[in-house]
Amino acid sequence: MKELQKLVGSLNKSGALSGFLGGGLTSLATGKKGKKFGKKALKYGALAAVGGLAWKAYQQYSQKSDARQSNQVHKEYQGHSDNHGGRIFDYTPDRMPEQAFEDVIDDNNESGQLLLMRAMIAAAYADGHIDELERQKIFASVENMALTVEEKAMLFDELRQPLTLSELVSAIPDAQTGIEVYAASVDAIDLTQPESRLYLDALANQLCIPQELVTSIHNQLVHQQNL
């Protein structure tokens, strides 16, 4: 416990926590179209921002799908769904409301918060190591979660032994959580590394996320980085 407190304290002194949480992701979540997620961002920081980003990406995906459907009057759009481990991941446009994305990091949903953090850790480790910038992002997010000291310590322990891709996918209960897990993974990972891109491709494939939705998530991340 002392080690955890020392670690968080050093990050606070260095400004890493305030710098990360005050950056593009939080700005994106608290924008004019993200008022609901903006309230949660005050408490959950980057995790709420990931939720807001995932929701906006899904909206963009739905709007493009609607436009494509209107231009194909004689071809019904069925969306995309698949069965994985007895669960259905259904990304049909406009099927999921904003509340579904909020619920992933709801006050009473500690499992959802923990899962997003575990996803960030697994993604950051995709290239075989976690560098200092990736580590600081993770520490900043953990510190701002509604978790006990013991739960935070558990996540730090996981830095030494992250979830495998199959373990992570098996822990994802539904499509909206899958979208947020993918968004959190993209934000945590080093996209300049070939191993990282291969990991994201495999994650999207195992979660059955349509390519159009994957593109929307990446576009939203690029947008927030330019804010």
Write up this protein:
- By secondary structure, the chain is mainly alpha-helical.
- The chain has 13 helices and 2 strands; from the N terminus they run αααααββαααααααα.
- It has helices at 2-14, 16-21, 24-29, 35-44, 46-70, 98-103, 110-124, 132-143, 149-158, 165-170, 175-188, 194-206, 211-225; strands at residues 81-84, 87-90.
- The chain has a two-stranded antiparallel sheet with strand order 1-2.
- A hairpin with a 2-residue loop joins β1 and β2 (87-90).
- α4 (35-44) runs antiparallel to α5 (46-70), α7 packs antiparallel against α8 (132-143) and α11 crosses α13.
- The radius of gyration is 17 Å and the shape is globular.
- The N and C termini lie far apart (37 Å).
Low-confidence stretches: 1-35, 70-79
**Share of β-strand residues:** under 5%
Q: What is the helix tally?
A: 13
Overall mean pLDDT: 74
Please give the structural blueprint.
Layout: H1 2-14, H2 16-21, H3 24-29, H4 35-44, H5 46-70, E1 81-84, E2 87-90, H6 98-103, H7 110-124, H8 132-143, H9 149-158, H10 165-170, H11 175-188, H12 194-206, H13 211-225
Antiparallel strand pairs: 1-2
Helix pairs in contact: 4-5, 5-11, 5-13, 7-8, 7-11, 11-13
